[in-house]
Amino acid sequence: MGLTRRHRVFLVLLHLAGDILIMASNPKPNFVLMLADDLGIGDIGCYGNVTIRTPNIDRLANDGVKLTQHLAAAPLCSPSRAAFMTGRYPLRSGMDSCGGARTIKWLGASGGLPTNETTFASILQKQGYSTGILGKWHLGVNCESLNDFCHHPLSHGFDYFYGMPFTLFHECQSEGLLEIDDAFRAQLTLITQLIALAVMTLVIVRYSNMLAINRNVIFYSALFGILFFITWYLKYGFIQYWSCIIMRNHEIIEQPMKVERTASQILREAHQFIDRNKNAPFLLIVSFLHVHTPLVTTKAFSGKSKHGLYGDNVEEMDFMVGSVVNAIDNAGLKNNTMIYFASDHGGHLEVRDDKFQIGGWNGIYRGGKGMAGWEGGIRVPGIFRWPGVIPPDIEISEPTSLMDIYPTVVYLGGGELPKDRIIDGRNLMPLVTKKTAHSEHEFLFHYCGTLLHAVRWHQKESGAIWKAHYVTPVFFPEGAVGCYDILICACVGDHVVHHDPPLLFELSSDPSESSPLDPHVYPQFKIILNRIKTAVAEHQETISVVPLQFSFLNNLWKPWLQPCCGTFPFCWCDKEDHNETVIIG
After folding, report:
1. What is the CB-side half-sphere exposure of residue 467 using CA atoms within 13 A?
2. Do 78 and 197 sit in the same domain of this protein?
């Protein structure tokens, strides 16, 4: 027997009442922010790839908004993630450099996200949110002592952390290729040997009179043993044991980490975090180790794509995205959760296995990871889904930034932006809900380390997007698309070219930056550059000098800051519960 009209109306009202009660008990939205590592914008189906399968990411785009001019504030991991967390250009917090190291190099270094920076997680935490981050951090751990955890996620607004405080390296695999260059490794070996020599000399001088044997025999025997051990350890084992670790909050869970099972562990933690916090507002960041080399991929996805190991890794990450989204939907949180997916910067062109390139593809955009000016290094996927709030299947081509997540999340979470500092990001809600046609960004500044390489001007009256390049990297060999003589393109020196006048492109008509405008032919050339020059001067007046977190001393490995499970230097432990896993595939 069918339902009467009265019964149907009653059921509809009952359903609406249930929704109202749910919203009343949890009026603040949840946030799930997913950030890939080194993913090229050309690797995703909804951005034009037709051979790598990314159905889950594509579905997010179909259900929400796809940003086609979404930009990282830096082309490398640590500075880009610092900008993401703070809503500020990384040089404002000292989280960038033009020196030998443009990211945090060691877990035992003292550099990292400064304690005086305010993350959006810390603001939401004060608004009653449960906050968690899973996966990659790469923003430092300690400052002055082994357990001060000044740069740790728990000191920056997160209630829960599970993952890798550093970043993935080839050496994290037991038989991985050596990713740290030989010259740097030799310098570190020499420095450590000198430290060992000094310490041993002090010990011998102080205690040799107590011993009934010749001090020279003691000295040279001990010195030989120490130097032999240090040299061997630096060459073969120290990175895997000292840098490739998994932490839960402040506790080391795996040292070294078992990279082949980390993906399932991160998924397990995501599901558990969502289940624990489903009855109250939460912020969850899933910071994938994919698709950074060495492209660790489970058996379920190995050999399945048309693009070798890299394609396999992208497809596995897509599965993980789908698993997290399903956990949200199955928990009944779909309509009260804003989901966001992006990459920290462009794909890595120079990374290769023997003669074969195994990094990402940046589509039609020139350049890649490490290059702050060319679009390939900074243009990334940007997808939002929030049913009932953000309209489905919308594409927006306005300039936006990873820094925009900061004010967007703070606004939606009921917090207030800090008034004692400049926030460079802009609230995206008016744009992604189609209440406004234009991004609030008029100018965006593209730094390579601490040097300005390019500037983007969104001329809203005409709709044009101008891009002026002051400095560009020298590609090697000539005619290539990357700096294949070095792992990452440099910001200064012989590896860059300074342009006077700057190279000028109009990105709407030339997104691949293939044809710079001729200053002798294009009538508006000088007018455009003068307007950009004025904006640069105004912007640079807002930049204050702050301590550089990637300076030589801050990025120098310090044994007393090295996280260690066990007795240093023999760090080892495995405290993981391997009975609780999420099956990949």
Report:
1. 24
2. no
pTM assigned to the model: 0.88
Together in a domain, 101 and 204: no
- Closest to 270 (Cα-Cα) out of 333, 312, 313, 346: 333
CA quadruple 434, 437, 442, 444: dihedral, nearest 10? 50
User: What's residue 69's pLDDT?
Assistant: 98
With left for phi above 0 and alpha for psi between -120 and 50, is residue 172 left, alpha or beta? alpha
Name 429's Cβ contacts closer than 8 Å, sequence gap at least 6.
408, 411, 412, 435
Low-confidence ranges of the chain (pLDDT < 70): 1-26, 174-240, 579-581
Collect all residues with Cβ–Cβ distance below 8 Å to 440 and sequence separation of at least 6.
426, 427, 431
CA–CA distance, 199 with 192 (Å, rounded to integer): 11
The predicted structure's pLDDT at residue 18: 43
Beta strands in 37-173 (DSSP E): 65-71, 130-136, 160-164
Do 226 and 357 share a domain, yes or no?
no
- Burial of 8-32, coded b for 16+ CB within 10 Å and e otherwise, reads eeeeeeeeeeeeeeeeeebebbbbb
Q: Do 256 and 403 belong to one domain?
A: yes
Answer yes or no: 77 catalytic: yes
77, 143, 448, 489: the catalytic one is: 77
Asked if 241 contacts 255 with a C-beta cutoff of 8 angstroms, the reply is: yes
Q: What number of other Cβ atoms are within 10 A of residue 550's Cβ?
A: 26
Task: Give how many domains the chain has, as a whole number.
Answer: 2
Contact 87, 81 (CB under 8 A): no
Question: What per-residue confidence (pLDDT) applies to 353?
Answer: 80
Residue from 138, 156, 292, 345 carrying the catalytic annotation:
138
What pLDDT, on the 0 to 100 scale, is given for residue 228?
55
Per-residue pLDDT at 224: 58
User: Are 187 and 327 within one domain?
Assistant: no
Cα three-residue angle 404-408-409, rounded to 5 degrees: 115
Is residue 483 among the annotated active site residues? Answer: no
Residue 509 belongs to a domain = yes
Residue in the structure block whose two tokens are 């010749």: 214
Q: Take residue 164 and report the two structure tokens written for it.
A: 């890798």
Q: Exposed/middle/buried for 360, CB within 10 Å: 0-12, 13-18, 19+?
A: buried
Range of the domain at 221: 182-237
Asked if residue 423 is part of any domain, the answer here is yes
Clarify whether residues 233 and 247 are in a common domain. Answer: no
**What does residue 323 show for φ and ψ, rounded to 5 degrees?**
-65, -40
From the list 138, 69, 75, the residue with the least C-alpha distance to 106 is 138
Looking at the domain assignment, is residue 270 inside a domain? yes
If asked whether residues 500 and 517 sit together in one domain, one would say yes
Measure the CA–CA gap between 412 and 583, rounded to whole angstroms: 34
Give the pLDDT score at 19: 41
Same domain, residue pair 99 and 151: yes
